[in-house]
Structure formats: structure tokens, C-alpha cells
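Here is one chain, start to finish.
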Amino acid sequence: MCTVTFLPLSETDFVLTSSRDVGFKREHAEFPATVVKNDVSLHFPRDGKAGGTWIGTSRDNRLICLLNGAFENHVRNEPYRMSRGHIVLDLLIAEDFEKSCGEINLDNIEPFTLVVVQWKKRNQLFEFVWDGLKRHLKEFQWKESIWSSSTLYNENMKTMRKDWFKEWLIHNEPSPSGILKFHRTAGNGKPESDVFMKRKNVGTVSLTQVVTTKGKTLMNYFPERSDEKGKKGNNYPSNK
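Its structure:
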């Protein structure tokens, strides 16, 4: 939910990895499962509190990953009409993602950033930001990218993380296992800003990784809370 990396593995394949940073007292998420919504098959871990998700894939070759906040931290104005995790599900089933970004009702929805990958007709990487007033949709180049949530990381922290990512790319061949290690170990030894983050009441509680290779997509889910360590789930098929 709060740190996301994207790595192209080839002209067609990629790996996206998400570190979910939330309060330690937040209800545990459900492991990834396949759900049919409006006749569209989706695969996602369900948030234990609000029932939405922070990451999911559809059988239409679309992946959406959520980060809390827009370009900068905001003052919360609760109650909000709907959890941001339900916006992820609504856009996963949309027939035309780009059109739906301009039409979906975002009134009284807390600011968010979505990282979106589509690989049906052609490979596309998007960033969709709702800042509470305006929508911002931008298509990125199909290349290595990193995002950090504005609600937990200031600009200095974001810059440090981008630098760590650039350094990692210099010394490592992009791979699912390699970038997973980056999400667990990158940093400067300060838990409050390391990629695997830990503060007094909030920190990294899980890692989710989506990998596409040779036309197949797998979602790997790794709970990182001490009471879930023995429940790591690998190789959940998200589409075949």
C-alpha cells in the first residue's frame, strides 16, 4: 500500500512488488483469492477492515496497486464516503480504464495514488492520482519505477528511496527474488524510513508481488507480522 516498485523483465513481462505499511493494530487481511465481480474474474487479498483491497489483478490483464495519499500529505476529513480499496475493485472491472478514471465518482473519497499496469493489447504503465479536488492520469514509460506513499514519507525520504532503488539497479539484475530482497533490506538502518519500515504504531505488515512470465500471471503474498510468519503464501494464480 505504501511502497511500490515496477520492474520490466522483458518487452512483455514484468514484476510489481508492494510493501503494505499500515497500523499494527489494523485487522489482518485475507489471503489472495479469486472473486467474480460484474462477470469479471478478479484476484486480490481482501482488507480485513474495509473489505476492499490495495492490490489486485483482473483476467483482462490489468493490475492496480494503491498507495495512500496524493502528491503530498493531507489532513484527513472523515468520515469518507467509501474506502479507497473499493475504488481499486471498481476500476479493475471497468471496460475502459482510461475513460473510467474520468467518470468514476470520487466525491468524498480520501486522496490516493494508483499504479496501474495493463498488458492486453499493448503494455501500459499508468499513475492515477486523486488529490481530493482533481484527477491526474499519467502514462509512464515501460521502465523501472518506484513510488512511496505521501502519508508516511516526506520528500527527503522519497528521494532517499529513489536513490536506493537506482543504486540497487546498478548492482543487480532485475528479478522477482532480487526486488523482494530490496523491499526487505534496502535502507540506511533507520527503521522509520527504510523500505521495510517500522515505527511505534505502524510498519510493513506484508509484501505482495505480481509476476507475469510467458503469458502467465502469479500473485505471491508474504505476511510479515510475527503472528503470521508461518502462513506465507506463494504462487497464487491470478490468471492463466
